[in-house]
From TrEMBL:
It comes from Tistlia consotensis USBA 355. The gene is der. This is GTPase Der. GTP 2 binds at residues 203-210, 250-254, 315-318. Pfam families: KH_dom-like, MMR_HSR1. Gene3D superfamilies: 3.30.300.20, P-loop containing nucleotide triphosphate hydrolases. Associates with the 50S ribosomal subunit. SUPFAM superfamilies: P-loop containing nucleoside triphosphate hydrolases. Residues 3-167, 197-372 form the EngA-type G domain. GO terms for molecular function: GTP binding. Residues 172-190 have a biased composition (Acidic residues).
Length: 463
């Protein structure tokens, strides 16, 4: 288990900016307005030769009721409890506020080692705030600039002994570590396990995406509540289902672009789109009481166009009165809207009650296996001869297009190359016919299939 560092502090002190610098990517959403971060985000950080896990947390608010801010605070407190160390960040340019002092008092009582840092210390404007931070009682603060990378050496000096101490506890005897390494070398001939399945949960706001992720994980990892649009960042969590590694990604709700007038929501939508781009399987979660709406179809079309395996999940199934009619309506609309991707799996579930989750995950892994499917060249060419004989290609200008041979170029999604004469004259309708027959004959329901046409060169053309 790697060393973990939680970055905490009141809103808008630069926690997400520091998180992005440590992980080396712009993973966390950053904006000038406070309160952008809500859920706890994790990432693999690197600081010189140190490697550790880092938590970006929501801004601390002095509330303890059942409001959204209070739920965000409880998530941050859970991160502090689970972390091996905490970095308490204050804004040097704004100076130490009463809220900083209040939470510094709580941090002093925590069992987790705490480092105090004054952020935004570039230039002289941050000097007064840096000196004020001495009065918080958390030791000597370090001067940081997350934006410009200042103070990383002092953060390194704080983390190194803690990380080395934890590694020493894990491997008290170097001989044990070497023996473990040697034992790993003996298994070199075995097939290496595949990486985690990248599974993104997407959908419109307030359909229960975070509730579903929490149910799958078995803990309140994501913020949930009656408010629409709680999730802003796409949060990934490593998880295991029946000995299969999964990287589960919760995303922000996607609305129609015309309805988005908030900058942070635009950033969240772009982050969700990026999660789809990097996913392997996408679960599109619907509100079963509303059915398959136009925005759901837009999201599904985006997933299919990106070549990702798609599973439709009907949430809130416990609230549906006529379930047979509701399921039939969704399947019929999918059939009409996606005739080129027939057989998309549809799973009914209740995230709130935890019903249908195993059925969902079985559908996810089945879609993943189909998405990875590879077909041998010989049966592909026998199939091509059969389907082209049953339904010959058109003959524009009186010259019939000849489909000569076919290979699978790649998987993920299944992609095929057909060498033929005059590929530019083959109509899209005939390509759709080939796709649907390929999906039917080789048992590949629901997965996107791509067919590229290539013109075979005539070896005598230049002679």
């Amino acid at each position: 288990m790697s060393f973990t560092l939680a970055i905490v502090g009141r809103p808008n002190v630069g926690k997400s900016t520091l998180f992005n610098r440590l992980v080396g990517k712009r993973l966390a959403l950053v904006d000038d307005q406070p309160g952008v971060t809500r859920d706890r985000r994790e990432g693999d950080a690197r600081l010189f030769d140190l490697h550790f896990r880092v938590f970006d947390t929501a801004g601390l608010e002095d509330v303890t009721d059942d409001s959204l801010e209070a739920r965000m605070r409880r998530q941050t407190e859970a991160a502090i409890e689970q972390a091996d160390a905490a970095l308490f960040l204050v804004d040097a340019r704004a100076g130490v506020t009463p809220l900083d002092a209040h939470f510094a008092d709580l941090m002093r009582r925590a069992r987790t080692p705490v480092l105090l840092a004054a952020n935004k210390c570039e230039g002289k404007a941050g000097e007064p705030g840096l000196y004020e931070a001495f009065g918080l009682g958390l030791g000597e603060p370090i001067a940081l600039s997350a934006e410009h990378g200042l103070g990383m050496d002092e953060l390194y000096d704080f983390l190194r002994p803690l990380i080395e101490a934890k590694e020493g506890a894990l491997y008290p005897d170097e001989d044990d570590a070497e023996a473990e390494a040697d034992s790993g070398e003996e298994d070199e001939g075995e097939e290496a396990p595949r990486g985690p399945v990248q599974l993104a949960v997407v959908g419109r706001p307030n359909v229960g995406k975070s509730t579903l992720v929490n149910r799958l994980l078995g803990e309140d990892r994501m913020l949930t509540g009656p408010e629409a649009g709680i999730t802003r960042d796409s949060i990934s969590v490593d998880w295991t289902w029946q000995d299969r590694a999964v990287r589960l990604i919760d995303t922000a709700g996607l609305r129609r672009r015309a309805r988005i007038d908030d900058k942070v929501e635009r950033l969240s939508a772009a982050d969700s789109k990026r999660a789809i781009d990097y996913a392997q399987v996408v679960v599109l979660l619907l509100d079963a009481t509303l059915g398959l709406e136009k925005q759901d179809l837009t999201i599904a079309r985006t997933v299919v166009e990106e070549g990702r395996a798609l599973v439709i999940a009907l949430n809130k199934w416990d609230a549906v009165e006529d379930r047979a009619v509701a399921l039939r309506q969704v399947e019929n609309r999918l059939e009409r809207s996606f005739p080129q991707t027939r057989g998309i799996p549809v799973v009914a579930l209740s995230a709130l009650e935890g019903r249908g989750l195993d059925k969902l995950m079985r559908a996810v892994f089945q879609a993943y296996e189909i998405w990875n499917k590879r077909l041998a060249t010989a049966p592909l060419n026998r199939w091509l001869q059969a389907v082209s004989a049953q339904h010959p290609p058109p003959a524009p200008g009186g010259r019939r297009i000849r489909l000569k041979y076919m290979t699978q170029a790649r998987s993920r999604p299944p992609t095929f190359a057909i060498h033929c004469s005059n590929p530019d004259d083959l109509p899209p309708s005939y390509l759709r016919y080939l796709e649907n027959q390929l999906r039917l004959d080789f048992d590949m329901p629901g997965t996107p299939i791509r067919i590229h046409l290539k013109k075979q060169k005539n070896p005598y053309a230049d002679g």
